Amino acid sequence: MKGLPFLLSVLLSACAAAPRKDREVASLKTETPCQARAKLVLAIHGGVGYVASEAQARALADVLQGGHARLAQGARALDVVQWANEQMEDSGIFNAGKGGTRTNQGTVELDASIMDGRDLDAGAVASLKDVKNPIRLARMVKDRTPHVFMVGPGASAKAREFKLETVTPDYFTASAEKKSESSPGTVGAVALDRCGDLAAGTSTGGLFGKAPGRVGDSPVIGAGTYANNKTAAISATGEGEKFIRANVAGRISNILEYTRENLSFAVRESLNQVEAIKGSGGLISVDRQGEVVIATTQKEPMPSGFVREDGKLVLQDAALK
Ligand code: ASP
Q1: What's residue 19's pLDDT?
Q2: Which residue, by CA, sits nearest to atom 9 of ligand 1?
Q3: β-strand 149-151 against 121-128: which pairing, if any?
Q4: Whose CA is nearest to atom 7 of ligand 1?
Q5: pLDDT tens digits for 198-246?
Q6: Eight-state DSSP code of residue 221
Q7: Closest CA to 279 of 296, 294, 265
Q8: Residue among 237, 247, 280 whose CB has most ligand 1 atoms within 8 A, to mutate
Q9: CB-facing half-sphere around the CA of 238: CA atoms within 13 A
Q10: Residues acting as catalytic residues
Q11: What is the pTM of this model?
Q12: Four-residue CA torsion sign, 85, 90, 91, 96
């Protein structure tokens, strides 16, 4: 009988030590449609500090509608968050993917991150110059590498290895939207799926006129993006330096985990922290009960919206004509 506990403990420690790749295969295999009928929520944003154009408002509405259809059919929060970010990256009318803003050298450097609330697994990428969909690469970093955060040429090499689409610089710089000097419009999504799982993702070209190599909060897990099934999913936008220093997304999750406060309180407290260091911005968030909080510092506008199981789109600073 002595042998059994020993054998069990050997087996358990073998599982714990299993290389990440094996765990990945196991976790990818569980990505079957969600059969449960629990609440669903998708919230998205298109940046902060401006009001959406008609085209941007339409794009946000389309993403909410498409995301709702997917979640209603049992799609996983993680997949829908990735999909939503990809749509906005490809639209060319937000500061992400194709529409990414310029550095002070006229180049485009993109950042993105994604996080799974089920196991706190995450992937993040920064300073990409040739990857069409940074959020897709962030997902690949999460699923297919032992790493969380990859940057620059090393990250681009991974994109090629994973056969993701790469592009030449004119894909980003040719966009008509780039003619405008400053380009807000970081994008992000948070979702609660029918299985009760949370996910968050954010994608950006960063701040207009940034120095090459500068990275903001969007790809920093705990600053611009965070998701934990025990607490909430958060995607932020704004002055990245301040959001990193205030540890905004992680702070919200920690407040929920370690106090009895609700999501509104946690969001307000965290944005207060941003204001206390003279920063500005906003965020979208959904907690494990499906509560949605969208908030900004100093009542700044933030084109954003959310949808629940009834399919009714709620948009703000994004009027549909
Ligand atoms: N937070 C982004 C950054 O600092 C920019 C933005 O959200 O507008 O890179």
Answers
A1: 40
A2: 206
A3: parallel
A4: 237
A5: 999 999 999 999 999 999 999 999 999 999 999 999 999 999 999 999 9
A6: B
A7: 296
A8: 237
A9: 31
A10: 186
A11: 0.90
A12: positive
